[in-house]
Amino acid sequence: MSEIEVIVGQVVPVISTAVGAYGVGVLPPQYIEQAREQATTYLHPALPPAWDDPSTWPTWRTLLPHIDALTDHAAVHTNTAISVVLLNRAGRFLGNQGQLGRAISYFRRALASAERVLGPDAPETLAIRGNLAHASFSAGDFGRASPLHEQTLTDTRRVLGPDDYPPTARRSRTPRPAGPGPPGIGAREQGS
Q: Is 158 found in the same domain as 112?
């Protein structure tokens, strides 16, 4: 039995018990919270290190239904720092797979939770906001993406300083309106 199968074998009963009990009100709330914490604890170390490596995709596809179940049945205010990691990394995987609507949903929840748990200026929170901006841009929601990118750039420079901001994330990632550019280069490839 693989390590992932063992972890999923541990997560499924925990989530099933918590969800089933929550739905019918059998367990007291503290047991449901404990089950959510256990499920989160089991899922976190099982996450693949990369979301864009095809060799990790089967593992992501195995874990994602369990991450979905956990987030579907846990209120946003119960999310922890580990939940934020689960949501953000699952969002990255989903975005990479072209499931932008689901990715955006995960990033929104991750951002709301990160702002509450880690604070609005935490580097992780800023990165999640950038991920939400990127996914929104990729989905064609330029009205949401552009202000998010600008806010992330401004806040990151303020928090980390202009010299510490990653060069690959500078203004070149800020969405550009579609329009004429050099032949053969779309609006997304145009950087500043």
A: yes
Report whether 135 contacts 93 (CB < 8 A).
no
Find, among 29, 93, 42, the residue nearest to 69 by Cα.
42
Take residue 4 and report the two structure tokens written for it: 């992932």
* Cα gap 102→139, rounded to integer Å: 11
Q: Which domain holds residue 52?
A: 1-66
> CA-to-CA distance for 131 and 152, rounded, in angstroms?
10
3-state secondary structure of 142: helix
Domain count, the chain: 2
Helices (H), the chain: 3-24, 29-46, 57-72, 81-96, 100-117, 123-138, 142-160
Per-residue pLDDT of the chain (192 residues; tens, 9 = 90+): 455 555 555 555 555 555 554 454 566 677 777 888 888 888 999 999 898 999 999 999 999 998 998 888 788 888 889 999 999 999 999 999 999 999 999 999 999 999 999 999 999 999 999 999 999 999 999 999 999 999 999 999 999 887 765 544 444 344 444 433 333 333 333 333
Q: Is residue 36 part of a domain?
A: yes
- Residue 84 CB partners (closer than 8 Å, separation 6+): 110, 113, 114, 117, 118, 124, 128
End-to-end CA distance of the chain: 51
